[in-house]
Specification:
The complex is a heterotrimer of chains A (294), B (280) and C (355). By secondary structure, chain A is mainly alpha-helical. Chain A has a single domain, classed as ABC transporter involved in vitamin B12 uptake, BtuC (Orthogonal Bundle). Chain A has eleven helices and four strands; from the N terminus they run H-H-H-H-E-E-E-H-H-H-H-E-H-H-H. In chain A, strand 2 and strand 3 form a beta hairpin. In chain B, 35% of the residues lie in helices and 24% in strands. Chain B is built from eleven helices and ten strands. In chain B, the strands form two sheets. Chain B has a six-stranded mixed sheet with strand order 6-7-8-3-9-10, with helices on both faces. Chain B has a four-stranded antiparallel sheet with strand order 2-1-4-5, with helices on one face. Chain B is globular and about 55 Å long. Chain C has one domain. Chain C has a two-stranded antiparallel sheet. Chain C has 355 residues and is mostly helical. Classes of the chains: A mainly alpha (294), B alpha/beta (280), C mainly alpha (355). Chains in contact: A-B, A-C, B-C. The interface between A and C is large, with 47 and 47 residues.
Chain lengths: 294, 280, 355
């Protein structure tokens, strides 16, 4: 009993963070599935979403500010895709990845300029910021809301992908980009929808994630972004359920390690996990294998 | 009978549940030109890849000039999945990487040309000399190996002259016409000083005139370099003209084998190529 | 003939650069920003070329550079802090457990060697991975290394998450210039040797390279270790330049910066990397600095100008280069003396360039 009461807070935090990583990881995994691109800017889009919330709440009530955050984030995601990735569609993959790194650099510097380098206090969102008692542990409501909301959103997304026309087009494009183009699928639209969904989920993720933190700085998105990407690789990149499960595993492991007093290594552990999985099962837990044709 | 150069024993290559090459055995003797033919997807290139170390065969062995160079048996999850024959026959796992096979003296070309496209013609051929050069990073970087480097360059130039490619030596390989790229790829393979040359569809995309030239070229390099040649080809004229013996592969299995004349008149082969109607 | 002439001219150019640095040091005040830019530019050139060797010449997309620089910087600092100063540097760790210090040159070499050793160990598992998986794995390793160096238990050696300082540093710009020039020179020799050709073959087509008898594992590991060796030395130089270091500053954003330099210069161009390094450092630290200060011309208050605007403009320029001048300044060509001669001999004719 003592063991549970001691570790329950970490477990709860892990589940909560895991859900937030999952929402970011879906953006990575879907983009990678279709464009074979590690969208290094995704973590920064997540950070921008948080900044939008910070600034908009100073001039408008929360019920307007949250929809605005979602809209601005989605617009930013689409803009980045159109401006930085679309012109490079026929370029080598490395060029696109470098472009993504460039966008990340740009967004961070923009944020640095706008914030003046000062940490911005994140507003407390009613209800999800409330404290709640779970057994012997005290936590914020967000801890309970996150996994539920994550599962609902993922379920809705799976319905979209498996049962709608655009979902079918997405699956086709992920399977074979060129052929689906030949089959008359407007691949550019599919990609836009992918970025739209990814950015939307990242914005939702940011609302939940930053509720647990006091403030936002320009590099706030980098680490959660990388970890969400690791989660996507861990689950098998391209697979949405894989990304979600990977994210929960990483979130929980990370917090348990913190609980054991190894905070220095909580980030390192995530990457160690990544390397182990890459070496022993490069396609991740649920990924499909692909062989080079000689 | 002349000595065995290449001997493939019971090689099976299975990808998951799909058997791409099924219990293939064949041999190529010294100085011969042997062709491997078969419909698309019959497993010809897969067989090449098993010989050259690109794939690890699921079962079977390959020997070159009397020594085992590849041997494998089903292991791991293949133990359960394996559907081929001769499962218990092989007990060793010798699985060298392709560079080791090349060093042994087997060179190859590729079905879809694989040149170093940003490098010059000269550099493309010079690369092949790297593996046998007596040098290390230190001597190479500080020009302490200039005798060796000079030898590599001289040999490369000589080879290019013999192949009539020396006037193109400073051209970027990727910008050359298709036919020349094919010839360069063969020249590059020759530069590794092989005893056995594997050609994967060298005449693909060539017109009859070019194919005829290629036939003469292949016969000529066999003489000049004392080569044994194993060739995958679809152009039957070429196959019938130059090969001493022919193996026919269909659905990964050996369908027939014999002299070009025998193969031309083999009913199984004709059926495989033309298809058999249901009621026949 | 030409070769000899070129060597002579190259040597003269190098001497001219040296002389220029000497003159600048005489006439400019020692704190002038130009000297800082030159120092940092030399160091970044070295690191950028080392990254180009891997990403541009061997085609291995690695994002571990900051990690190897960290190893180099720490190795150098830990080994060279004078024994007398260790008490104050390692004040939280009872003066540390190392009670000797080695000469600067030994420290630099050790920095390179330890980075190369780590690269060798890391390379065993990760070099089998392809393109983006390799990128993310090396990025991960850099993060692990960073955490490891901040680990409290190692504090007696690394000083934990505290700063390392009081190690010998340099005052003249000549120092980083000469060290970087020698290191880059060695890398150029390697690139032009038989091994360099093998690296390029691997970049162009791995499967064909293997079929040409090139041992992929061995050569990739070799390129990885060489690159890390020089990144380690670059890290040590950076430590000397900064006079104090902290593991927390060697983030992945440092790797991204170096990667952007390599791309701006041109993947596969040594001179491109060097030129881009100086341009990058000069623009970000000096030439665009006016953007950071508010300005009023007459009655007109120029909008937008305030702290941080410089970096925004800078990153927009970088994005423009990445998008519209994809091959960078030099493509994969080199800035060569022959090229200049050709340019001056027939200025009318379009320069015949190797693709």
């Amino acid at each position: 009993m003592d063991f549970i009461s001691k570790n329950l807070p970490y477990l709860l935090a892990g589940i909560s963070v895991g859900g937030q990583y999952a929402l970011i990881a879906i953006g990575y995994t879907m983009v990678y599935g279709i464009l074979r691109l590690i969208n290094f800017a995704h973590g920064d889009i997540f950070m921008v979403a948080a900044l939008v919330t910070v600034y908009s709440t100073t001039v408008m009530p929360l019920y307007l500010s949250i929809p605005l955050t979602l809209i601005v984030t989605v617009a930013l995601g689409l803009l980045v895709e159109r401006a930085a990735y679309k012109p490079l569609r026929s370029a080598p993959r490395m060029s696109v990845m470098i472009s993504a790194i460039g966008v990340s650099y740009l967004l961070q510097n923009l944020a640095l300029y706008v914030t003046g380098g000062l940490a911005q206090t994140y507003p407390s969102i009613p209800f999800i910021s409330n404290t709640v008692q779970v057994g012997p542990a005290t936590t914020k409501m967000v801890t309970l809301v996150t996994p539920i909301l994550t599962i609902i959103l993922v379920f809705a997304l799976m319905q979209l992908i498996n049962h709608t026309k655009i979902g079918m087009a997405m699956r086709a494009a992920a399977n074979d980009f060129e052929t689906s183009r030949l089959m008359g699928i407007k691949v550019d639209n599919v990609i836009s929808v992918t970025f739209l969904i990814g950015s939307f989920l990242a914005a939702v993720g940011s609302l939940l994630y930053f509720t647990n933190y006091a403030s936002v700085i320009p590099t706030s998105g980098a680490m959660p972004g990388l970890k969400a990407f690791v989660a996507a690789v861990f689950g098998g990149i391209g697979s949405i359920p894989g990304a979600v499960i990977g994210a929960f595993i990483i979130g929980i492991c990370e917090n348990i390690i913190k609980g054991l007093g190894w905070t220095t290594f909580s980030d390192a552990f995530t990457f160690a996990l990544l390397i182990v999985i890459l070496i022993f099962k490069p396609t991740g837990l649920f990924g499909e294998g692909a062989t080079d044709k000689v | 009978m002349s000595a065995n150069v290449l001997r493939v024993n019971d090689v099976t290559m299975q990808f998951g549940g799909v058997v791409a090459v099924d219990n293939l055995s064949l041999e190529v003797n010294e100085g011969e030109i042997v062709a491997l033919i078969g419909p698309n997807g019959a497993g010809k290139t897969t067989a090449f890849n098993c010989i050259t170390g690109v794939y690890e065969p699921t079962n079977g062995s390959v020997s070159f000039c009397g020594t085992e160079i590849v041997e494998s048996y089903p292991h791991g999850k293949m133990k359960k999945l394996y559907r081929g024959e001769n499962a218990g026959k092989y007990a060793k796992r010798i699985l060298p990487t392709p560079d080791k096979i090349t060093k042994e003296g087997i060179a190859r070309t590729f079905q879809n040309i694989r040149l170093f496209s940003s490098m010059t013609v000269f550099e493309n051929v010079l690369i092949a000399k790297h593996m046998r050069a007596k040098q290390n990073l230190f001597t190479a970087a500080f020009h302490l190996n200039h005798a060796e480097e000079a030898r590599m360059r001289a040999e490369t130039l000589e080879l290019l002259k013999m192949q009539n490619l020396d006037h193109l030596k400073d051209e970027i390989a990727g910008s050359l016409p298709y036919g020349i790229q094919r010839r360069l790829e063969i020249a590059r393979a020759l530069a590794t000083e092989p005893k056995l040359l594997l050609l994967d569809e060298p005449a693909a995309g060539m017109n009859p005139q070019e194919t005829q030239e290629l036939a003469e070229f292949i016969l000529q390099i066999r003489e000049t370099y004392h080569l044994t040649i194993f060739i995958i080809e679809h152009h039957m004229d070429l196959v019938m003209q130059i090969s001493d013996r022919v193996y026919v592969l269909d659905f990964g299995k050996l369908l027939a084998h014999g002299t070009p004349d025998e193969i031309q008149n083999n009913q199984h082969v004709i059926d495989a190529y033309l298809g058999v109607s249901e009621d026949a | 003939m030409n070769k000899k002439r070129n060597t002579v001219i190259a040597a003269l150019l190098l001497l001219a650069a040296l002389a220029l640095i000497l003159i600048l040091e005489r006439i400019l005040p020692p704190t002038h920003i130009a000297l800082a830019v030159l120092k940092k530019g030399c160091i970044y050139s070295l690191v950028a070329v080392s990254m180009n060797l891997l990403n541009g010449f061997t085609g291995l997309f690695s994002l571990g550079q900051a990690g190897f620089m960290l190893i180099g910087a720490y190795t150098y600092a830990v080994l060279t802090i004078p024994a007398a100063d260790r008490g104050s540097v390692y004040m939280y760790y009872g003066g540390g457990i190392i009670h000797f210090s080695v000469p600067v040159i030994v420290g630099l070499l050790a920095a390179g060697l330890l980075a190369a050793l780590f690269a060798w160990l890391i390379g065993l598992p990760v070099l089998r991975l392809k393109s983006d998986y390799l990128a993310i794995a090396t990025l991960g390793f850099a993060e692990i290394i960073r955490a490891f160096f901040q680990w409290d238990e190692l504090g007696v050696i690394t000083n934990g998450s505290n700063m390392l300082r009081k190690y010998p540093s340099f005052s003249t710009t000549l120092y980083p210039f000469i060290v970087s020039a020698v290191c880059i020179g060695i890398m150029v020799l390697i690139i032009n040797s038989s091994y360099g050709r093998a690296f390029k073959a691997i970049r162009d087509d791995e499967i064909a390279a293997e079929a040409m008898g090139i041992n992929l594992a061995k050569h990739k590991r070799m390129a990885f270790c060489i690159s890390s060796f020089f990144a380690g030395i670059g890290g040590a130089l950076l430590a000397m330049y900064q006079t104090s270091i902290q593991a927390a500053t060697f983030r992945s954003s440092m790797t991204y910066e170096i990667l952007l330099i390599v791309v701006i210069g041109g993947l596969g161009s040594v001179t491109g990397s060097c030129i881009a390094s100086f341009l990058f450092i000069a623009s970000s630290e000096w030439w665009l600095r006016f953007l950071d200060t508010e300005m009023t011309i007459g009655n007109f208050h120029v909008p937008l100008l305030r702290a941080g605007f410089r970096k925004v403009v800078f990153s927009v320029i970088i994005m423009a280069i990445v998008l519209f001048a994809r091959n960078g300044i030099m493509g994969n060509r080199e800035f060569s003396i022959n090229g200049i001669f050709r340019f001056f001999k027939n200025p009318g004719k379009k320069k015949e360039v190797k693709q």
